Amino acid sequence: EHAPLIWKHVNHYGLTWGLLTTKWFICLFAEVLPIETVLRIWDCLFYEGNKVLMRVAITLVLSNQQKILMSQDFGDIIECFKSITNDTNAVDCHTFMQNVFKVSGSFPRARLTKLRQECQTEVLAEVKK
Fold first, then answer.
1. Model pLDDT for residues 45-59, shown as the tens digit of each residue
2. Where is the Rab-GAP TBC domain (predicted)?
3. Is 119 helix (H, G, I), strand (E, B) or coil?
4. Which residues are CB-contacts of 70 (< 8 A; sequence separation ≥ 6)?
5. What is the distance between the alpha carbons of residues 54 and 35, in angstroms, rounded to a whole number?
6. Could you give the CA distance from residue 65 to residue 45 in angstroms, rounded to a whole number?
7. N-terminal to C-terminal alpha carbon distance within the chain
8. Could you tell me which of 14, 126, 106 has the C-alpha nearest to residue 54?
9. pLDDT tens digit sequence for 24-73
10. N or C: which end of the chain has fewer CB within 10 A?
11. With b meaning 16 or more CB within 10 Å and e meaning fewer, what string describes 15-50?
């Protein structure tokens, strides 16, 4: 929804979003972003709830759209996703956190819940196969 060109590009190379972003979500960005940025994300997490994690991921992806689209193969895309967390867009925590709420746009909790349910249905269908 937020980055159809990137979604198409990533799928073209047979990558999954899980492969590219699992470390981001598993460690709540602690191992991939500067500590000051991480602490600001965690503050927002406690205040706003877990949807801020999706906002951060969307902001990282959209802020680096050109880099991602310029990646030419499987390995390039993986390296690109590793490097975008060290990009200048993510290092200045104040600017980055402002962008988290601007770039990701409206992000209603109901929409996030619906997307999660759709993903869970897909995963369960795959498990049953």
1. 999 888 899 999 999
2. 1-49
3. helix
4. none
5. 18
6. 25
7. 28
8. 106
9. 999 999 989 999 999 999 999 999 888 899 999 999 999 999 999 999 99
10. C
11. beeeebbeebeeebbeebbbeebbebbeebbeeeee
